[in-house]
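User: Hello, beginner here. Can you help me understand these amino acid letters and fold codes? It all follows right here:
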Amino acid sequence: MDIFELDPSAITDYKKLHDLLQQSGDCTANNIPHTDVTVVVKKSTMSKEMEKHAMWVAVCALSKFTVEKDAARYIKQEFDKVHGKQWHCVLGQHFGCYVSHHLAQFTYFYVNSIAVMLYRTTDIANVCGKTPKDLSTVSILPVQTNNATKNQILRRPEEGIPAPKPTPVIDNN
């Protein structure tokens, strides 16, 4: 487990990271209000440079936003912009998860009391040889099968296949 004391004035030690944050126009060493931030890395497969970038972007996001999903969106978008698409970010004080990710593109750390998990997945469009438009035409429709359960039926709307009719349940009791 690595523990880092982050001092925003020390960002000049990481000139490249400083430049990346300045390019976003939102957070630089001068406008991060936290001067005493503790980052504890629990698990990471990223390079040290990418890991430090993740820490700085997370500190910036948590300084800028009070709503967790907005901070997560900011971190995801910054990593999509700088390191390519397919990044995902989960953050908060209480959550559990189990995810698949690229081998060298996962980090899980705390910024003070907020846990941040950032990871990258495979671009499914490249794997399947389809464009995102082709992949986005699948919809999941809820179908009532009885009073107790709901099933979800996967269909392609462009195929004109109607949703299946629910099977009536006859209770003889």
Summary: Helices lie at 15-24, 48-64, 68-83, 124-128, 132-135. Residues 2-123 form a domain with the Protein Inhibitor Of Neuronal Nitric Oxide Synthase fold (CATH 3.30.740.10). Residues 1-17, 131-159 have pLDDT under 50 and may be disordered.
